[in-house]
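Hey, quick one: can you model this chain's 3D structure?
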Amino acid sequence: MIKQTIILLTLFTLLLPNSLSSRSDKPESAQLILKNAVSLAQSSQKNVLLLFHATWCGWCKRLETALEDPEIKALIYKNYIVVMLDVEERGEKIQTHENPGGQDMKAEYGGKNAGLPFLVFLNGKGERIATSNVMPREQNIGYPGTKEEISAFITLLKKTAPHLTRKQCSVVQKYFEQHAPQ
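Sure thing. Here's the predicted structure for all 182 residues.
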């Protein structure tokens, strides 16, 4: 009995790495991620907040940190299904991090020439409500760090999260004002 157990454990140990290495580490396609998010948004009566970002993007990391702040996260996730798509990567990270089709999707939503982070707001049917290209000359907000960018971001939230109260918008505005670049 012990001999059989040892043989089985040895076989399992030898075969496990092979089965793991044949697994694809490639990120999911942007289309599949978006399809799942829209389905979830529709069933939960929320909108989709689609965030295009990259691993090298400092402004993206700042926005992601904001979205993970407990108070901000509670407000955002109550109103949106948040989806992050990795685009514009460099070198080997194109294969390991970038969501296939993400760059094309960013362009389809008006972000071809927009910097990162780039935001798209969709309803539960997958229809575009707004993008972060709301600054003068349709420039992208990116990370809301100036008074004008913060104001534009709050306007986007009011437009795309109808259940967000004035007080909750003030909480978000205060966060970005306190975390504005110096």
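One thing worth noting: The beta strands are 47-53, 80-86, 118-122, 128-131.
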